């Protein structure tokens, strides 16, 4: 490609800054971030940081894994997430460097929207995107800071281990007196474990006490 030139470290940082800001400033297409025909809707910062053609060239050719080392689809060790696995591993290492989480953490799923067709693509009607790649995220409850994230590659690659319970058992179960009579505060939930059963009393965002097992 005649218009391509080697990518510098500063350009990569600028590219990532643009990507992050695109998540904060939503527009209908990439081209609209550089469109200044309507002054009231123009975003001049993007044009100052990098030209649109340069951004799209980097977006087209940027890879975070060495394709020559990826095993083929027919191989038993094939990983459909191999294209971004090095980046995911690097991010997980960095997440743990900058924060010591409080005791309240949560695990939740998120869907990264994609129009591509691959074995990892999931359909979750409750999500805004509905179609995309699902990630499990371990987050600090108070701040939402991501501590670790894991990609779900589909049933074929990530089957549920036999005999392990998935999901949550809720209020229809008898509560231990320690939990039923607890008066938790936003900063001090009450936990109780018996065998493999964990019960908790906590204060939700609306100020109501919740009791679950």
TrEMBL record:
Domain PiggyBac transposable element-derived protein: 2-159
Region (Disordered): 164-187
InterPro entries (alphabetical): PGBD (IPR029526)
The protein's name in its UniProt record: PiggyBac transposable element-derived protein domain-containing protein
High-level lineage: Eukaryota, Metazoa, Spiralia, Lophotrochozoa, Mollusca
């Amino acid at each position: 490609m005649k218009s391509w030139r080697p990518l510098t470290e500063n350009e990569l940082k600028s590219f990532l800054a643009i990507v992050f800001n695109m998540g904060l400033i939503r527009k209908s297409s990439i081209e609209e971030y550089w469109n200044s025909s309507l002054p009231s809707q123009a975003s001049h910062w993007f044009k100052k940081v990098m030209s649109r053609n340069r951004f799209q060239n980097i977006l087209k050719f940027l890879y975070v894994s060495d394709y020559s080392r990826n095993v083929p689809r027919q191989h038993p060790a094939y990983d459909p997430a191999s294209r971004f696995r090095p980046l995911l591993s690097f991010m997980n290492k960095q997440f743990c460097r900058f924060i010591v989480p409080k005791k309240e953490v949560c695990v939740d799923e998120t869907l990264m929207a994609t129009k591509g067709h691959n074995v990892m693509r999931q359909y979750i009607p409750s999500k805004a995107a509905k179609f995309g790649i699902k990630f499990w995220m371990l987050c600090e409850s108070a701040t939402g800071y991501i501590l670790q994230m894991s990609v779900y590659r589909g049933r074929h690659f990530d089957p549920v281990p036999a005999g392990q319970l998935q999901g949550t058992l809720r209020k229809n179960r008898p509560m231990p007196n320690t939990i039923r009579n607890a008066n938790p505060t936003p900063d001090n939930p009450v936990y109780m474990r018996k065998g493999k059963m964990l019960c908790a009393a906590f204060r939700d965002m609306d100020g109501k006490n919740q009791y679950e097992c």
